[in-house]
From TrEMBL:
The keyword DNA-binding appears for this protein: yes
GO-annotated molecular function: DNA binding
GO biological process, one term: regulation of DNA-templated transcription
Gene source species: Actinomadura namibiensis
Domain annotation HTH luxR-type: ranges: 125-190
Keyword annotations of the record: DNA-binding
One Pfam family this sequence matches: GerE
Keyword set includes Hydrolase: no
PROSITE patterns for this protein: HTH_LUXR_2
Listed name of the protein: DNA-binding CsgD family transcriptional regulator
Superkingdom field: Bacteria
Length: 214
């Protein structure tokens, strides 16, 4: 979704009034929205964000002491501040500027919309709170360098099923639904190496390809 200059101005103005709580559904990650999570921890309102899985790479860096981040599917763009004011956009309603909502009943309805998406979204587990085992690190290091599940299993002297089970556990741990998303997450958090392909890697196997497991 592409926001206009007017939209960005509204977002910044509304965020500037936040004192206690920010609720945000973010199908895309515009700079004005990112500022909702960039406030100093001591002064920032409590913030909860549901970010689209297509922007997974940015989600781990958003989570902090005052920001909770979850990964969701397609969502409207919604911003609620202190449960008193709100803005919402839908992809098929871009012909006119979106007014700020202040009516209590309408704000409450939008809070319910947010809570619905929040309950269905998957938590982002910060890496420091869920450290990898040595086996998991070895597996993702091999996969990231282009090795298949079978080649990785052979190199580590474990079964292919063990490789696949460990990868599945990591995906569940981080609320990830595909190996492509897992590759993006690992790259974003610095958990995969930047070295060249390992012996047994497929030709041209980049990160997104190497985690496909074929």
């Amino acid at each position: 979704m592409r926001l206009s200059a007017h939209d960005h101005a509204q977002i910044r103005a509304l965020l500037g009034k936040a004192r206690h709580e920010i609720l945000l559904l973010a199908p895309s990650w515009a700079p004005a929205l990112r500022s909702a999570c960039a406030l100093p921890p001591l002064t920032a309102p409590r913030t909860r964000v549901v970010v689209s899985r297509s922007f997974l790479a940015q989600a781990p860096s958003l989570a902090g002491r005052h920001v909770q981040v979850r990964l969701g599917g397609a969502t409207p763009l919604l911003l609620v501040v202190d449960r008193r004011s709100a803005l919402s956009w839908h992809a098929d309603e871009r012909s006119v500027p979106t007014p700020v909502v202040h009516r209590p009943a309408e704000v409450e309805r939008l809070v319910h919309v947010f809570e619905h998406h929040w309950k269905r979204a998957s938590p982002v587990v910060p890496v420091g709170e869920a450290p990898l085992t040595e086996l998991q690190r070895s597996i993702i290091r091999s996969l990231a360098m282009g090795m298949t599940d079978k080649a990785t299993a052979g190199a580590l002297q474990i079964s292919t099923r063990t490789v696949q089970r460990q990868v599945s556990q990591l995906m569940q741990q981080w609320g990830i639904q595909s190996r492509l998303e897992l590759g993006v997450h690992l790259a974003a958090t610095g958990l995969v190496p930047t070295r060249g392909p390992a012996p047994g890697a497929r030709a041209g196997g980049g990160l997104a390809v190497s985690l496909s497991g074929a």
